[in-house]
Structures are given as C-alpha cells and as structure tokens.
Design brief:
about 35% helix, alpha/beta, Rossmann fold, six-stranded antiparallel beta sheet, 17 strands
Length: about 450
C-alpha cells in the first residue's frame, strides 16, 4: 500500500490520537482541540480500513492530530458537530459508497472555502481528478501512497489553510472575552461589526452542548428561526456563520436588564408596568406562534427589559436556543444524558413528563413569568429542584391574588389561568391570553 520508508517524528511527543466514528453513525468521543504547536489537525476519510489505518499512523507519527472515518456521510456528521474550521486538512478517497470524494469535497468547501482537501486516487482516476482540481480540490495523491509524498502534501495543505484563515479579516471582533450572557446553546459576547461599525451580540456554541446530534445545525436553525421573527418584541438576528472558533450567530446588542433583575424581589411590579410588559411579551409570543415556532424555554432571564426615554420600558424575548417549529406537537428536548432541557421553574407539567407539547406549554411558562413579575417570586419554587418538580406536577401554588390583593382580579385570574395544570384549561393561543390584559 505504501512505498518508501521515510518516517518523520515530531520534536516532542504530543498527546495525539485517532478518533474513529462508530458504525452506527454517531461520533465517538471528540478530542479537545489540540494546541497549535502540532503540525495540524487532519480528517482522513477512506472506506478501506488498511489504507485508513496506514494514513492515520503515518500522520500520527509525524505529530499530526488525526480523526478517521470510513465514509463521507459519517464525516459530514462529524464536521457538522465540530464545524469544518476545526480541521486544517482533509484527506479523502475518491471512490467510496454513498458519495464520491469530489462531491464530498464540494460539500466541505461550501461550509468552509479555506479548508484544503487532498484526494486519494488510483492511476485510472487521474483524468477525473485533474478536472476536479478546477472545482476546488487542492491536490491529489496517487495510490499506492508514498509516505514522504503524503506528509509533504498534507503539510502544504495545512500551511495553505492556515495562511488563508489568518489573512481573511474577521467581520465580527469580540471586544471583551467575558460573556455578557449565557443561554441554553452557548455564551453571548459583545462584539463589533467591522463592516457596519456597530456593536453587536455574538453568540458562540457551547462546546459540550448536547441538545441535538448536530449542534452546528441547531445553532443555525436558531438563527433561521430568529430571522423569520421580525417583531419589535423579539431579539433581531443579523447574521450567522463559522470561523476557526466554531459556529456563531450575530444579533442586535440590547442594553437592558433581564426580568430576573428588573423585578423587585419579594414585591413585584406596579399594575401599570406589569400590564405594559405582559402585553409586549404576549405580542412577541403570538408572533412566534403564528409562524409555528415554540420557544420552550421562557423564563425571567430570557426576557430583556430596555429602558426608553421618559421612563418607559420595552420587552424583548431572547434565546430561542430550544425553539422548535411546532406545526404539530413536539417532544420535549433531552440532552445526551437524558436530562430535560429548559428551566424547571417555569416548565409545564407536560414538558416535565416529556409528553408532546404545543403553544399552551409556552403560555404556561409565560404565566409563571407573569406570576413572578407581579409577586417577585416564582410560583412553584421549592427548597430543592426535586421539590420544585413535584410542585409543578401536583400543582402546589398559592393564588396570586393572595400575594397581591391590591391587583384587580381581572389581572390575577388570567395569570392563574395561563398556569392551569391541564393545557385545555389554559388560553388556546397567545392572542387569546392577550385579550385579558387590557392596556
């Protein structure tokens, strides 16, 4: 298979290893991105196990960090999980089941045009491969592969990939490494849009996120969801993409406070402010539901209150990281360990039971938020999370009118109705709930 006896050792032993993608299609444990002292991080794709192992061992011995898989479909799954920018080079066979190497390369380059790809081929494939070079393939290696040729080609490809990435100016530059917020999918940072010269919020995917099999796809789905929700009471998304740090979403930068910090602890808001913000929250939620989108993680910290001139306030719904298109009832999200995703303090009983959910689950959560806005305390909170869980399931809650006797029943009753244990006893839609909160 291999010709020649050249073998290069790295100057120091690096903790590199091969990570194989399991036959089931689910990736195995992902290595932490290694320090940049190693020659590069390479993805090897070949359906011949002997060639795959020989390529891998040669590259590992030279100090490269290597990830291997046997076909393009598993490789695509892995790249979606990590983002192509995590790799410096891809070495792929031409003839493989399901998708040939050229089509696979086109897919990669559509995700990251800076990533250089080497194509393995036999002598009979040479004319096809030469034509493919015009389509973006960086270079090709003829089988049987000489170790020297392999290492030289991979090193050139890695250097070219890094050169392109370093020379490509970043449009969005984080100006403070300390996050300004954290949500279900990742951390949010203040950044500068260098093209439009404006401050923005840049959301980075959390590396350990287990919400979906493909966190990158999940993050971009969130961006698509938000982009479709052009409403004054929903945070606006500007852009999304990937770079060498992974996938990101760019959103409007909001200067305000989450409801969890805006509401006075233990007392709640006055009636006028409560109604004003409640109506805005319901208007935003109604817009989302009208497009078939459930939020599924409504809580005080996911609603931002902006201070306007003259002492007025404006509410915006944030963090659609758990959002789902809800044209039909949706199952509650669980992570890789089987844990329920979302805030247990505002989660509906049907979500806690992992049953199909619809818009009324969001209304239950928003009802819990309204209860907090009016009273300064969450309705079902217990001394432990287990107690909170059972308070929801057994519907142990003090009526809001007992905590705020100064509020009219025309306000406290709709809030309790939104938190009804049985979904059929809640308002059918956010628009129906809105009708009960007159300005």
């Amino acid at each position: 298979m291999f010709a020649g006896s050249f073998m290069m050792r790295s100057p120091q032993e690096l903790p590199t290893r091969t990570v194989r993608i399991q036959a089931s299609g689910s990736p195995g444990p992902l290595p932490e991105p290694a320090p940049r002292q190693h020659p590069g991080r390479v993805l090897v794709v070949d359906d011949d196990i002997l060639i795959r192992e020989m390529l891998s061992e040669t590259l590992l011995d030279a100090g490269f960090e290597v990830v291997t898989t046997r076909d393009p479909e598993r490789a695509r799954h892995h790249l979606q999980r990590e983002a192509p920018a995590r790799f410096d080079c891809v070495v792929t066979d031409y003839l493989m089941p399901g998708m040939n190497g050229i089509d696979f390369a086109r897919w990669i380059l559509a995700q990251d045009p800076t990533l250089k790809i080497l194509l393995l081929t036999s002598e009979d494939d040479k004319e096809v491969v030469k034509a493919s070079l015009r389509g973006g393939i960086y270079d090709f290696l003829e089988k049987p592969v000489c170790q020297t040729s392999l290492l030289e080609a991979v090193l050139r490809a890695v250097q070219e990939t890094r050169k392109l990435r370093q020379s490509r100016p970043r449009r969005y530059i984080v100006d403070n490494p300390i996050p300004i917020g954290e949500g279900g999918m990742g951390a949010v940072y203040r950044a500068i849009d260098t093209e439009l010269n404006r401050p923005v919020a840049l959301k980075r995917l959390r590396a350990t996120s287990g919400l979906e099999h493909s966190p990158t796809a999940t993050l971009f789905k969130e961006a698509t969801t938000l982009a479709s929700l052009q409403h004054p009471n929903i945070v606006q998304v500007y852009d999304c993409g990937t770079d060498d740090e992974g996938p990101f979403i760019v959103m409007e930068l909001l200067q305000g406070r989450g409801l969890d910090r805006f509401v006075p602890e233990g007392t709640g808001l006055d009636a006028a402010t409560f109604v004003h913000l409640a109506r805005q929250c319901l208007q935003g939620l109604a817009a989302a539901h009208s497009l078939g989108v459930l939020h599924r993680d409504i809580k005080p910290s996911n609603i931002m209150v902006l201070d306007l001139p003259g002492g007025a306030h404006h509410a915006k719904l944030l963090d659609f990281g758990l959002a789902k298109y809800a044209l039909r009832p949706s199952l509650q999200t669980v992570d890789d360990a089987g844990n329920i995703s979302g805030s247990i303090h505002t989660m509906s009983p049907e979500q806690l039971r992992q049953e199909p959910i619809g818009p009324r689950a969001d209304l239950y959560a928003l009802g819990c938020v309204f209860y907090f806005m009016a009273s300064g305390r969450l309705p079902f909170s217990g001394e432990t999370l287990v107690e909170t869980f059972h308070n929801h399931l057994e519907h142990r809650v003090q009526h809001l009118a007992e905590l705020r006797p100064d509020l009219p029943h025309s306000l406290t009753t709709p809030v309790m109705s939104m938190m009804a244990y049985d979904p059929v006893h809640r308002p059918a839609t956010a628009a129906d709930a809105l009708a009960h909160f007159s300005a």
